[in-house]
Structure formats: C-alpha cells, structure tokens
Amino acid sequence: MSDIYPVPAEWAAKAKVTKADYEAGHARSLDDADAFWLEKAQRLDWLTFPTKADESSFDEADFQVKWFADGQLNVAANCLDRHLAERGDQIAIIWEPDVPTEEPKRFTYKQVHAEVCRFANVLKGQGVKKGDRVTVYMPMIPEAAFALLACARIGAIHSVVFGGFSPEALAGRITDCDSTVVVTADEGRRGGKHVPLKANVDAAAAHTPCLKSVIVVKATGGTIAMQDGRDIWYHEAAATVSADCPIEPMNAEDPLFILYTSGSTGKPKGVLHTTGGYLLWAAMTHEAVFDYRPGQIYWCAADIGWVTGHTYIVYGPLANGGTTLMYEGVPNWPDASRIWQVVDRHDVEIIFTAPTALRALMKDGDDFVAKTSRKSLKLLGTVGEPINPEAWRWYHDVVGEGRCPIVDTWWQTETGGAMITPLPGAIDLKPGSATKPFFGVEPQIVDADGKILEGATEGNLVIARSWPGQMRTVWGDHERFFQTYFSTYPGKYFTGDGCRRDEDGYYWITGRVDDVINVSGHRMGTAEVESALVLHPKVAEAAVVGFPHDIKGQGIYAYVTLNAGEESSEPLRKELRDWVRTEIGPIATPDAIQFAPGLPKTRSGKIMRRILRKIAEGDTSSLGDTSTLADPSVVDDLVANRVG
Ligand code: WT7
Questions:
Q1: pLDDT at residue 451 in the model
Q2: In angstroms, what CA-CA distances link 278 with 18, 134, 319?
Q3: How much distance in Å is there from the Cα of 356 to the middle of ligand 1?
Q4: Sequence ranges of the binding site for Mg(2+)
C-alpha cells in the first residue's frame, strides 16, 4: 500500500483549482470539449478570436493536429505587451548568476519588452522574416529568453539547441531546419567552468552551408574569433536599433518553435509546436499546476535547451504575468547548498526541478539543506523522470519540512506541457505517482495488441485524443510524425512510456518501453549513441542499453565489437567515451563500455536487447530463452565480462 498525502486544508480552501473544479472540469473538458476550450482560450489576448477549437484527427485517412485554426495572436504580445499597463514595473525575470558572489539582475516587464524589441530588430537586421528558422545556442542568461521572445514577436521559428551539445550535434540541428542565423554567446558558465559556445558554433559552421550570420552575445568576455561578414556582436547591433518593434500577427497554427528530441530510431526529430494551442497549454498548466498568482517568485531550475525551459521558464510564467527566475549555474556548485541559497536569496515560493538533482543533493546529506531557511517555499515540483518514493519523501520532509505539496508532472517534449500531474489544491498525493490527467487529457492503458485495459492495470500509455499543446509535426517529415506516434496503436497517440494505474485511478509512469534511455531526466536514443560509436574507425558494431543508475535514473551501457585485429584496452575504452562526448555531448557519455567479441542476435540478425539489458542490470540469472540466438555461446562471454 502506498501512503496518501491529502490536500492540505489551507490549499483546499484557496486553490485556483479545487477538487470539485477538477472533477467537474475534467469531465466537461472531455464531454463538451469545444465549448470548454473556446472558453479557456479567452485567457489569451487574440487579434482574432477563434471560432473552432479542436479539428484534429489521429486516423490515417484525415490525420492532422489542429487547434483554434482561424484565430490570430502573437505570443510575445501575450507574454509582454498585454501586461505593460497593469504590471509594467513588476519584475518579470530575475537572473541569478553562476558565481554566487556576483549580483543577480532583475528586469521589469517594461524592460523585457524593450530588450525583446531590440533583439527582434537585430534579427530583422540580419534579414530574418516570418517563418525563418533561428537556431539559439545559448547559456542560461537573460538574452536567451529575449531571443526566444524576439523570434516569437516577428514570427521567426526558434530552434534552441542545448549548450551542452557538441558542434556535430549543433551542425545537424542547424542544417535539418535550414537555419540562416545562429544566436550564441562568447562562452557559457556552469559550475565555475566555461563552455566555449562560440568556438563550437565556429566548428559547426564548417558543415552548415545554410548559415549566414552568427549573433554573439558578450557573456563572459572570453577571447573568441569573429568572422568578418558572418559574425556580429549583439551589443553593437542592439545599440543601433529601436526599442520598439511591431508584432507580427500569427495564425494560431503558425509555427512557434522547433525543438529536437531523441527517439528510438534515426536522427533526433525536430518537434514542431505552433502558436495558439501551445501558448494556451503553457499558460493554463503553469497556472493550475503551480497554483500560480502574479507576484509569486517562481523558479523552474531547468535549462532553456529543453522543453521544460521553454514552457515553464519562459512562455507559461510570462503569459501569466509572473516573475520567473533564471539560474545560470548548476544545483551543487560551489556546494550542495547552492540551490537552497538561491531560494533564500530571492524568496522563491515555487521550485520546479528534476529527480536526478534531488537524488544527487540527497546523497550529499541533509546538512546542506538544514543550514538554509527555505521558509519562503510553498510548493515543490518535479519533472523529467519517475521520482523514486525515497527522493520524493526527502524533498517533502527535508526540503519542504513537510509543509509543501509536491507536483510530479509527467509530460514530454511532444506534449508541450504537463499532461498527468497533481493540482496542489485538488488532488491528494501519492509519492512516486504523477496522479491524474490534466483537463482535456484522456489517457488509456493498452496491452501490446492495443486492447484497452480497464481498472487497476499495467501496460503502455496512450492518449486517446488531441490536446491544445500537442506537437503538430516532425519538421520536414510529416510521415515520420504519423509513423512514430500514431501507427503502433491506430487512432491513438503512443507516448513510448509504460504505465500502471492503481485502484484509485492514479497513474504511475514506469519508464520508457522503447529504445530510449532517460539519463538524468534527458532523453537519449540508443540508436544515436550506437551510430556515434560505429563512426569510430576501430569499432565494428555497437549496441547500447540503459541500466539503473543511483543518481541519473538510467545510465548508458554500451557493448562494443571491435574490428578484426583491434585489441581492447583501457585507453581505448576512454577514447571511445571521449569520442561519444565529442560526437554528441557529455550527456551521451557511456557509463560503461563492455568489449564484446559478439552480440546476441537472432538468426535473422536482430540484436536481442532484452538479453543485453538483463546483463547490464546485473540480472544474469534470468536471461530467458536464448535458444533462438544464432550463436547462444556469445551470451556466456557477455556474462563473464560484464562491466560494473
Ligand atoms: C520522457 C519525456 C517532460 C519534460 C522533460 C523531459 C519521462 C517525464 C516524468 C515524470 C515519469 C517522466 C517519460 C517521458 N518523464 N516526466 N514526472 N514521471 N517519467 O522531456 O525529454 O521529452 O522526455 O520523460 O519517460 O516519455 P523529454
């Protein structure tokens, strides 16, 4: 039996969404969807209010994802301009630097508006127009948020690439969507280290013929090379442009951004989100999940390079007239108190972070928490991976001193925002469960054949109908969009996650059921790591699987077969790890590499990953049936030479 943490009385009394609101609202959102959503859409500022809400279909014959299609609006106007009259002098963005002895920066809505207009004019000066793609490869500095909103203002499509990705990974993402402009900084800073962002862009640019200009924000003042005719300093260009820039009227279905994410096969996919439905989902979930009211200091400790940063650092909070904190650094530098010191410094009321960060901090001991006050905290959030009940209780009891509910939000890059999540004034909590579906979300659990399983059960998680924040396509490959998400279980969106539903109708995400590994809350495709490994001249073949990791949730375990005549060695192991870091980025670095003379394959040549997973997990007693293998003896060698 799992414990239940009931909604605290003071939350039940004054929550934005109460238990009754949730129950009635969720039923209505499914039974009378169009009316429900047209009513909710009124929270945004439209140039033309839509007459229809959902026109989506998951069936192959008339497949499309489409919301509010005849409405017109601008995202930047919704996040900034409409707040100016009422809260122009309120702080919109607080920026906390990497180095704790440096001063934070604060920007009012008026100031952010002016900065965004300038940035938009600088982009225009580089020839950027509505529909053009702008790649943003930035550290966690305010200009990153300004750049996103500037794109939105003029109708350009931003594609943010996480600053931890390598030049190769960056180049692939620039060319896939034909970006003409990259916005970057001289260097980034994280945990006292400098990241050579501009140098990485220079290296990427050797493979990106579409790239015409690089806009460089001076962040650290580190030495970099500037290429004449291609590179411009942001501060120089910004000094010459106006702090006023008209908004571009956008149709609700015009693209807002592309964000690349890993899948089980092939190259990373450019997930496309559009304007109206995405913004509504961002704003509505941000308000309901965090019970957010303007004036509250809210901190989402993600990086802007991931969807969490898009939806819950920038678009959701600003659409709601909120104060959003952007932190440049990492949770445990200079030491494991840092995150809580930032909370105290800014009187943060709501914090949103990942289980992996909590597990790492928990390991460093309670003293780092206990010596901070945290009295401002009211609500705690998590995202990115299943949270183990032990980490949940530590967050609740030690960090929140028992007084703050935890919202464990399940969602994906594809879903735009939270999908299965507690609402703190409406839903009793169970540690480790993302609890119940948000308004408009119709989850189902199906078996391998697609049969809908009722009641308390376990299987694969699908969503039976569209919701406003859903991705619209894979950039440049609509067929791949359909194949990836809608062909496994016809008529339904397949999440790729396994899930259990308990007797109270609570959902418990059990993790990916496809070949995707969740490393520290970040998604990594096994196929991507394998492709990187086989690019190495000494590698003949590679198979990559996930294995349980105390801090990261899952680690990366690689089986590598060398070319004939090559010798395995410790230096080669290190070389291969470094190779993957260079090819993809540090987050893809294998935790373990096992040299394997052969891989377990069926007679038709398919690698049996089930066996590789078991061995990586150290569970070698129950390898199951190996009789269908072309050469069962390879398994003995794999077991004998397991790393770990
Ligand atoms: C995958 C999506 C959601 C934004 C950050 C990650 C896993 C996410 C939870 C949660 C259990 C979770 C799922 C999902 N996941 N949140 N609260 N509980 N699992 O976005 O990179 O698109 O990854 O993260 O496996 O499919 P992403």
A1: 98
A2: 24, 19, 11
A3: 12
A4: 534, 536, 539
Q: Which amino acid is at 130?
A: K
Cα angle: 385, vertex 391, 395; to 5 degrees: 110
Q: Ligand 1 within 6 A of 493 CB?
A: no
The one-letter amino acid at 243: A
Ligand 1 atom, smallest distance to 434 CA: 17
Give the integer Cα–Cα distance in Å for 480 and 304. Answer: 26
Is the CB of 497 inside a 6 Å radius of any atom of ligand 1? yes
Whether residue 292 has its Cβ less than 6 Å from ligand 1? no
Whole-prediction pTM: 0.97
The rounded distance, in Å, linking the Cα atoms of 602 and 631 is 8
What is the reported pLDDT for 2?
65
Domain boundaries, the chain: 520-641
Long-range own/partner contacts, residues 208-213 (CB < 8 A, 24 or more apart)? 208/171, 208/174, 208/175, 208/179, 209/175, 210/174, 210/175, 210/178, 210/179, 210/180, 211/174, 211/179, 211/180, 211/181, 211/182, 212/126, 212/127, 212/180, 212/181, 213/126, 213/127, 213/180, 213/181, 213/182
Round to whole Å and give the CA distance between 237 and 124: 11
What are residue 261's DSSP bridge partners? 269
Q: Which residues pair with 435 in a beta bridge?
A: 507
CATH number of 520-641: 3.30.300.30
Q: Which two tokens stand for residue 456?
A: 């308390």
Kindly state if the Cβ of 422 falls inside 6 Å of ligand 1: no
209 alpha carbon – ligand 1 mean position (Å): 34
Determine if ligand 1 sits within 6 Å of the CB of residue 518: yes
Q: Is the complex ipTM higher than 0.95?
A: yes
Could you read off the pLDDT of 236-275 as tens digits, one per residue?
999 999 999 999 999 999 999 999 999 888 899 999 999 9
Which among 303, 315, 508, 518 is the best mutation to test ligand 1's pocket, defined by most ligand atoms within 8 Å of the CB? 518
- 493-501: strand order across its sheet: 452-453, 443-446, 457-463, 493-501, 507-512
* pLDDT tens-digit map of 111-134: 999 999 999 999 999 999 999 999
Q: The dihedral of CA 109, 115, 120, 123: what is its sign?
A: negative
Q: Which helix (H) or strand (E) holds 343?
A: helix 338-346
Q: Which pair of tokens denotes residue 613?
A: 């997973």
Query: CB within 8 A of 526, min separation 6: which ones?
Result: 264, 515, 516, 517, 543, 544, 545, 546, 609
Q: How many CA atoms lie within 13 A of 380 on its CB side?
A: 28
Q: Is the CB of 162 under 6 A from ligand 1?
A: no
Report the atom number in ligand 1 closest to the C-alpha of 414.
22
